[in-house]
Design the sequence.
């Protein structure tokens, strides 16, 4: 799902999800860095090769500034050009890989994920909320020859995957309402919930239950199950989940066989987060 690029990225309103970022005086900000990052984010699956005008239209940044930023990205190896069109190079992956290599959360959950997937025979993952999307930051594949699910660094629209419902359920009501109003609920399958009120009702149900099952909402053949992952102070820092084949796992079987293992693993991880 394409993500609209923002001209001036800002931290998401995360309600109860995580502590607020340390306040930064506007006088200390480097506006050019923000614009450069917005330009990098403007490229996606549907806009992988763009002109200066294309990028300016997606970011609301003046064309002269876009040109200088794109040429700078080319100079430092993060983009390339044929003189008219621009595209990102593999060097950009260093930016995201730096988080996966340095962040504390993926390291802390790795062993628990391996035990969870070995004990259940299914792929286990940990993900966090980033605006309209869920980002998968850690994964342990199932012991089977072919495993399904998302890889670290993969993104999915939050409204169609079980971790998204769980993470959104941890927001305060005002922040949740704002999130729903700001993000379109695009349909991916006939099962996708696109009505805002129905979606809010499901997120609140996830809050009451402490887990959520997303049955065929992103892919008609897949079902996801997730629970909140909290630290020792009770703050939700991520979601712990599994992606399984819908053909073999009914919601009732998921609750009976996989949910207890997810809940136990989440409880154990709470002691180290």
Sequence:
């Amino acid at each position: 799902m394409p993500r609209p690029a923002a001209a001036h990225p800002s931290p998401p309103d995360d309600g109860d999800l995580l502590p607020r970022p340390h306040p930064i005086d506007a006088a200390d900000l480097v506006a050019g860095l923000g614009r450069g990052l917005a330009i990098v984010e403007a490229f996606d699956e549907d806009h992988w090769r763009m002109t200066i005008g294309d990028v300016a239209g997606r970011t609301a940044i003046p064309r002269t500034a876009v040109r200088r930023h794109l040429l700078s990205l080319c100079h430092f190896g993060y983009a390339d050009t044929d003189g008219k069109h621009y595209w990102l190079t593999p060097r950009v992956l260093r930016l995201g890989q730096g988080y996966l290599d340095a962040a504390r959360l993926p390291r802390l959950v790795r062993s628990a994920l391996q035990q969870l997937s070995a004990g259940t025979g299914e792929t286990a993952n940990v993900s966090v909320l980033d605006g309209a999307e869920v980002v998968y930051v850690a994964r342990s594949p199932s012991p089977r020859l072919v495993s399904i699910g998302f890889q670290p660094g993969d993104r999915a629209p939050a409204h169609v995957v079980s971790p998204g419902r769980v993470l959104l359920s941890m927001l305060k009501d005002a922040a949740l309402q704002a999130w729903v109003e700001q993000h379109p609920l695009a349909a991916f399958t006939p099962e996708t919930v696109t009505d805002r009120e129905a979606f809010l009702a499901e997120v609140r149900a996830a809050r009451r239950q402490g887990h959520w099952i997303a049955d065929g909402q992103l892919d008609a053949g897949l079902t996801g199950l997730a629970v909140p992952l909290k630290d020792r102070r009770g703050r939700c820092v991520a979601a712990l989940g599994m992606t399984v084949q819908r053909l073999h796992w009914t919601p009732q079987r998921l609750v009976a066989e996989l949910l207890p293992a997810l809940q136990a693993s989440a409880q154990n991880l709470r002691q180290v987060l």
